[in-house]
Amino acid sequence: MQQDDKRKYLSTIDKTLITASLIDGFWDRWKAHGLKEAHVNSMRKSFLTKDIWMEGWSELAAQSISLAKETDCRQEAEHCFQLAGLHYQLMYWLIPERNEEKSVCLHKSLHAFFQADHLSQFKTKHVQLSIEREKYSGRLRIPHSPAGIVIIINPIDSAKEELFTYELDFLKHNFITVSFDGPGQGQTYTDYEIRGSTERWGRFIDALIDYTHAQFPRVPLYLFGTSSGASWAIYGSCNPKVTKAAAVSPAFLNQEIQMPEYFIERTEYILEMGEKNMLPSFDHLHFLNPVFLVHGKKDVMVAGQDIDNLYKKLPRSSCLKVYEQEGHCCNNSLPEIREIIADWLQKGADPHDV
Fold it and tell me: Which strand (E) or helix (H) includes residue 33?
């Protein structure tokens, strides 16, 4: 690593850790995905450094694995392995550059989730999707009597395993879940060095819909995403193979929002050179299928006016639900949101009822 690159790499980590130390809202995403408040408080007892971060989450992961191996309760063991995987995800996530340390942390997380999947009542298949000689890693989780399929589209810097609570909420409603690491995410980035671009993401979403429809041709296909994942769910809703889509806090291509510096720097590692984002434009889409839009009124990244304008363009059978006290991604209300959306996907709830 060149000296300038090393300074930038260390600076990005330091800015991330300063934000984690000082800003409570930094943790909302991770708590929404299953991280325990007590573990956050334990980590924040002292000002966070890279060593404290890596050692702290590694120790908590080891404790969760020990609990998983000690308990006689299969469900409790599964959850402990999932928590261990999430702790390793935090270690993997901190490292912005694709290097050996990042890879080791990711594969520790993958192994913990593999152990959890082995204990699950739901069948799990680990699969690969090839698109123009590029490899994309994914997982399918299949309930006993599928009522539909939900493709979960991850936000820009999330790996598929991080959203395991999303899988569980849809699985309990008998939806097959399909979760892949897209361009610049998880295994697809770390193992295969595939970076993100708008063009590549468009190809990925199109191919993922085709792949899923081919695997389960007689089962209704739905999309669910948050933030940038929500934007691509809206894009995918225009595909005739999709029945419905749900989008929580979709990001807009031309939004004039000042993102945190650490986040901007982190995305530079996972984007193709010259790319500033990997979002679709909604301007020229031919909207086909109903979309359930969710917006937090305190969202400082997505303007309410943009949401309203988009909603007016969607099919009449679409829905819009606004949470007065929520911010971006509506993290505190996500379990409720997933319940409402699961009901809408299955029963076609009237927009006035949500």
Answer: none
User: Which CATH number does the domain housing residue 224 bear?
Assistant: 3.40.50.1820
Which residue range is the domain that position 85 belongs to?
1-120
Per the prediction, the chain carries an average pLDDT of 93
177 plus 259 within the same structural domain? yes
What is residue 260's predicted lDDT score, i.e. its pLDDT?
Answer: 79
Encoded amino acid at 289, one letter: N
pTM, 2 dp: 0.94
* pLDDT, position 258: 67
Confidence check: pLDDT of 107 > 90: yes
Tokens of 54: 């890596």
pLDDT confidence of 1, banded at 50, 70, 90? low
Same domain, 8 and 58: yes
Distance, in Å, from the CA atom of 152 to the CA atom of 150, rounded to the nearest integer, reads: 6
Q: Strand 291-296 vs strand 221-226: parallel, antiparallel, or unpaired? A: unpaired
Phi, psi of 336 (to 5 degrees): -65, -45
Same domain, 242 and 106: no
Assess contact for 246 and 294: CB atoms under 8 A: yes
Q: Is the pLDDT of residue 353 over 60?
A: no
Same domain as 230, residue 86: no
Name the domain boundary from 120, 147, 173: 120
Quote the CA–CA distance of 43 and 39 in Å, as a whole number.
6
Q: Is the pLDDT of residue 283 over 80?
A: yes
Domain boundary among 120, 140, 172: 120
Q: How many domains, in total, are found in the chain?
A: 2
Q: State whether 67 and 84 are in the same domain.
A: yes
pLDDT at 349 over 60: no
Tell me which residue of 111, 115, 59, 68 sits closest to 87, measured CA to CA: 59
C-beta of residue 105 within 8 angstroms of C-beta of residue 92: yes
**Gap between the Cα atoms of 314 and 317, Å rounded:** 8
Tell me what pLDDT residue 3 has: 73
Q: Is residue 20 within 8 Å of 48, Cβ to Cβ?
A: yes
153: three-class secondary structure by DSSP: strand
